[in-house]
Design brief:
Structural class: alpha+beta
Amino acid sequence: MSSNTPPVAKKIPTERIHHGDTVIDEYAWLSNKEDPDTTAYLEAENDFLKQETAHLSELQEQVFQEIKGRTQETDLSVPSRKGSWWYFSRTEEGKQYGVSCRVPANGDAPPEITPDVRLEREQVILDGNELAGDSPFFSIGTSAVTPDGTMVAYSTDYKGDERFTLRFKNLETGEVLSDEIKDIFYGGAWSADGSAFFYTRVDDAWRPYQVYRHTLGTQEDVLVYEEHDERYWVGVGLTRSEKYLVLGAGSKITSEVRILDATNPAGEFQVVRPRKTGVEYGVEHAGDFFYIHHNENAENFELATAPLDAPGDWTPLIAHREDTRLLEVDAFSDHAVVHFRRDGLTGLRVLPYPGGREQWRERIEAAERNAYEIDFPEPLYDVGPAGNPEFTTRRLRLAYTSMVTPPSVYDYQLDTHELILLKRRPVLGGYDPADYEQFREWATAEDGTKIPVSLVKRKDTGRPAPTVLYGYGSYETSIDPSFSVPRLSLLDRGFVFAVAHVRGGGEMGRRWYEDGKLTRKRNTFTDFVAVAGHLKATGWSERIIARGGSAGGLLMGAAANLAPGEFAGVVAEVPFVDALNTILDPSLPLTVIEWDEWGDPLHNPDVYAYMKSYTPYENVDGGPYPPILAITSLNDTRVLYHEPAKWIARLRASASGGPFLLKTEMGAGHGGRSGRYDAWREEAFALSWIIEKGTS
């Protein structure tokens, strides 16, 4: 190991007073991105990290080659039918980014395509490699083709700050139009005739709050909606039927939806039902009626229907169930598919409409009576609808994976109930799923709650084994059982990989989320610690490396404060570790929106005291900590780089143990580096560090 002295961040005490509490933040100066001292400090930390991890370079290269060697670099997606075209994407060996393509449809069967062969009449829609050029970062924010297939709207980001520039390309001539709109957000939607495109803009707090209409060939765009409540985001989309534009406004706990006839883009959006605090709902057009997916008096949501001329008049169809969380509904011309969650796993429920000429209410009631769920054989898996752009179809495209089964694409034939495997992601190098096994364990939290844990290992790996324990636990986001090529580099070295499905996530339904947010947030952290203890007590694990990112990085910091002795190392990626200071500052990106998730410490002294009791940066003590690797990006607009920078500085100044390392990507955003080879190298770096800490 290197004996070089780590950087020492200067201390400039900054006083903060809230609710009578005076706090000194000696590293607040690091939040000034334009200060040359900040840049110099981050670069010094990067230099120190390189010195401290130089001995891992050979292992890092080996892991990178393993990831690369297991990946079919020249590959393509399964084509999806939309109108008179089949759409798909290609990746090519040696190129960082994908290429989106299409070919004319000839019959109902998808074209037979091979990864390295161009089809006759194949058309490139967008080539990410050409668009990226020599830029060290590149990302596409939206790519939307007009309903008639003649034009694509696409937006690009070359910095990682998620501020995109919107352009339009004529797919018949290849011409990029002179229309150019800067500083827009993700997403957008075309009108039915392709004459107008709707997009969103963000405010200074990075909140999408305005929806504009751009008419091709014009200079002045029209503001069609502005959301003044700082807790709400807005977005806009086009229904699968292409009959309605849908403008949604939503906070963390409340929704309001507006709809507009897509053939009348200059018209006025109409409210489906006015917002009511705590009520979330979504609207799906099903031909001659609407589906409404909502949680009014239904914690786990229910499915209702509404007539076209009175979309706010909801009639229950699938009633609320305590054991089943309804996630979404996809409507088609003659069936609907409900995506749900039960017992920590996802599932699909099909509602087939009868073939007669019944009135729509009779038809959907018959559909619910004849509904059925699709069965899957593995004990752990994740399934969901995927790539179903056509409104009229007798097949359901779905995506399936497990911890041992690579991502797979199926067509489910509604007439025969047959699952047809279209593609399973190739894993090169002799991967055999039979060499691995997955398990579900249940740990007991400190309040007696049973916490599900998903695990995977090689069959020949003995117990106990070094373990990577992953966690997230916020925003009702579920970390479902899934496959990972890079993870094989751990499993083949005798590691166990485990996911702690802690409260604050959505794995066990809406109550699971509610019990891990606001003034019950501490459950997220104690659940994770309980899972680590369970894995050791039951003989699964010896040395545990904890890993999490973003809000999962907050979990990493809090768990390290609560039980540093449980972990042999901690990897915190873009970690939300200075949560209290961030949530106190309404001028920062996303803060006001986040008050529904964490509470409002600015105006509520009880919330302030509660957050202060768990925020990692506020609770670093002088005791021994495990080695910690924090990874961040300078241009991150979601979790600002200074949070992990301050955290590492305080750990190094106040705590013992470690070492404490900070890696700042100086040209990327929240998702890290953008090119796939660059991303693989970043992952190989993290895995090499994990392997050393897990086996030393």
